[in-house]
Every structure is written in C-alpha cells, then in structure tokens.
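Session log. Operator J.P. requested a structure for one protein chain; no other inputs attached. Running the standard single-chain path with token output.
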Amino acid sequence: MNMLAMQGGTRRSIATNFLRIFSMPCLRRAYVFKSLPLCAERGHKQDLIPHNVEHFAVPHAPIPLSAEVEKLKEFIASSSRLVVLTGAGCSTESGIPDYRSPRGAYSTGFKPMTHQEFMKAETSQQRYWFRSFIGWHAFAENTVPNAAHHALARLEERGYVRSLLTQNVDRLHQRAGSRDVLEMHGTTHEVLCMSCGARRCRYDYQDQLAELNPMAQEALYEEQQAAPTNQEDAREKLLIVGRSARHQQRPDGDVELSPNAEFEVEFVL
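Structure written below.
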C-alpha cells in the first residue's frame, strides 16, 4: 500500500473575530501554566512546558513592549468566540523548526516533496518514509507543548477562544488541552492508504516499518541511545543535530537526508 501522512482537512463554518498568531511573544510573556497530565498517546514524555528553549529552532525576536501585551490582553478580554490561526512559529519553543526564519527550513535549503512526486515513483515513497521514520521519534515523542499552546488551551477553557485553525501537523495544541482544532495541513499522526483509503495510527505504522526494516531500526536505536542526559547536553545536541550534514529535523516531522543516506533504497513499505 502507498501510505501517505494525512493532508488537508474538512471545511468548517466559523463566525467571529479573528486572531492571527504565528509567533507569540506576547502570550509567551503573559501566560505560564502548570503541566498537564501525561499524554495518553504512546511514547510521550510528561508534558512539562519546555525550559531549554534557547536552541536552534527558536528565531530571534524582540521582547514585546508592555503596552503591546496590555493591548493584546484588552483585545482578548473584550472579545468572545475568537478564532485563532497558528503557524510554525507557535511550535519553535517546543524544538520544532519553522520555515522562513533565518535558521528555518527554507533558509537551509529544504525542498518538501510534493504529492505528485510521492505518487509518481516508488523510490520517492521510500525516501519519504525513510525520512519520516528517522524523524518521528524526535518530532512526536520528544516534543512537548510550550507556553503558547497552554495559553491558548486555557483561553478556550475560559470561553475567550472558540476555535483554533493551525497550519501545524504536530498536534501540540491538542496535547495542551485545546479541543476545537482544525488542522489545515493535516497531521503526521494519522496515515492514509492511497489505494483503498484505510487510515492507521502513525504509531502503529512506525512499528510496522521498524519490523520491515531492522537495519534502519538499529540505526535509529543507536541514535536514541546517544541522547543527552541533562538540559545543557540537550541544548548542545539540538544544535549539533539541527545543523548536521547527515540529516536535519524539519517542521513537517521528517528529516532531510544527505544524498548518500544508508537504507534509503532498501527501505520496505
């Protein structure tokens, strides 16, 4: 089966004021919440707000003026049924790179695979899924919602925010507690068969890929065992991995591989 990470979403009629937030310095400064319980999905660390945020994924941004923070607070307080649009900048403090900042994916030469390229050749499908297989652990299991995700969830809980429209595929909004989320670009957490339309949990498909590709699984295991043991080492490792010539973590959950990456041609789907 040709399996592709879920793309797109259903249309939904939404009324209301519109709040567009791609990078959220005001919310980062204004709101910090306690951790939520351990996520029900498999493999997640406890969802604490990350503290080691000064790494490669976070672009430089000026500290917001107090007047700007107050203006945002007044706007939210005087509104109801807000719809919030979030993009890649919302997840950078969780360690997921964005696209357009100076150190973002596009700035480092990232060229995403198109749907047409994926469907055209089996070698493209192998490369796509090898990249996704290698990148999944760091993207889905080692990231946690940050203060912006928690702030938006709390605003929804208190009745200020009605819905979230997100361009992100990481599901960190849901893990933070947001309930009404429309994933405009789909999600990496579900997989769709392009032949019969069957859907599968991404975790289950990761297990299947590991069974079918023991050499790739062994390489991934060795990389995971080399994980750092404290925050200082973690920050250094993120800097190294994020700029590695071997592979780079990307905003859509996979990694960018060198042309000579091993296992690529032999990767079984």
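Operator note: DSSP finds nine helices and nine strands in the chain.
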